[in-house]
Every structure is written in C-alpha cells, then in structure tokens.
Amino acid sequence: MKIEQRMEELGIILPKTSPAKALYVPVKQLGNSLFVSGQAPFIDGIPAYTGKVGGERTLEEAQEAARICIINTLAAVKEYIGDLDRIVNVVKLQAFVNCEIEFNQQHIVINAASKLLHDIFGVEGQHARTAIGVNQLPMNITVEIDSIFEIQGQ
C-alpha cells in the first residue's frame, strides 16, 4: 500500500510547508540519507502548542504536539523528494520537550511520534530515538523533533 494512501486511511492530511523561520534548510540530503531540520507543532504557520509540559501543557497535549511535528516532518520530506514511497527507513528521531524541571516523561511524549511513524510505515518506521527535556525551545513551542530518513535513489 502506498504511504500517502495509508496516511489518508489514518486521517492524516499533509499540510503546506511553512518557510524556515531562521537561516537553515528544512531538508539536507547526503547520499541516500535525508536529514530533516527540527520541526515544530505549527498549523498554518502558527505554533499550535506553546508552553512547558508539567506547567501550561498536559502530557496529552504534548503528545499531540509531537504528532503534529511528525506530520510537518513528512510534509517537508514530501516537498523535497516528491514521493513518500521513496522512504526506505525511518532511521532516527531526536526530540526535545519543553518542560518543567520535575517533568520526567519525555519518552512518553515522544512515543506518540514513534507510534505514528510505525502506524504509517510499519516495521520500516521503527527507529533509533533520543527524547530530551529542555528548559526552553524557540518561540516557546512545546516539542521540536528532527529526524533522519533513508530513501531510495539519489
């Protein structure tokens, strides 16, 4: 089954990508690897989730923010390579959770992102991962995720 067809079955619609908010490129290719810059929980170019988990934001809200980050990641990849079926493997996620100092469930927040990738790509969606709690993120966003994908062809 095609990846975008699977996404449609899951109720996922890829958004139009937003331009980079600073001096970087959204996707950089090296051989068959795609390095995707940190994606934020933006909807229509506006942060959908801001604030710290364990403070202004609940665990469930942070999980939804992580899902939006992955959807935005896939939108950036599609814009770069044109066809998500070229993805061979999700290699790694590096995730940052803006949280209060006593919050220690960053891994549970990012499980939502990992689950979504598994739901979309199956076994090829399983990946290495880091989930880090931080004191602040740009624009006070709740979650930011960067990623690495392996693709077919160059």
Would you give an account of this structure?
Residues 5-141 form the Endoribonuclease L-PSP/chorismate mutase-like domain. InterPro entries: Endoribo_LPSP/chorism_mut-like (IPR013813), RutC-like_sf (IPR035959). It comes from Bacillus cereus TIAC219. Pfam families: YjgF_endoribonc (PF14588). The chain has a single domain, classed as 2-Layer Sandwich (60s Ribosomal Protein L30, Chain: A). Helix content is 30%, strand content 28%. It is built from three helices and seven strands. The chain has helices spanning 3-9, 59-81, 106-121; strands spanning 27-30, 33-39, 42-43, 46-47, 87-98, 128-134, 143-151. The strands form two sheets. A five-stranded mixed sheet has the order 1-2-7-5-6. It has a two-stranded antiparallel ribbon with strand order 3-4. The model has no long low-confidence stretch (mean pLDDT 96).
Describe the structure concisely for a colleague.
This is Endoribonuclease L-PSP/chorismate mutase-like domain-containing protein. It comes from Bacillus cereus TIAC219. The chain has 154 residues and is of the alpha+beta class.
CATH homologous superfamily label: RutC-like
User: How much helix, percentage-wise, in residues?
Assistant: 25-40%
Q: Specify the overall morphology.
A: globular
CATH architecture assignment: 2-Layer Sandwich
Computed over alpha carbons, the radius of gyration is: 15 Å
Average pLDDT works out at 96
Order of strands, main sheet, comes to 1-2-7-5-6
Number of strands: 7
Name the CATH class: Alpha Beta
Q: Write down the secondary-structure element order.
A: HEEEEHEHEE
State the helix count.
3
Quickly give the structural class: alpha+beta
How many separate domains? 1
What fold name stands as the CATH topology?
60s Ribosomal Protein L30, Chain: A
Instruction: Bin the strand percentage.
Output: 25-35%
Described by strand count, sense and barrel closure, the largest sheet is:
5 strands, mixed
Q: What is the terminal separation in angstroms?
A: 23 Å
Unreliable stretches (pLDDT < 50, length at least 5) are none
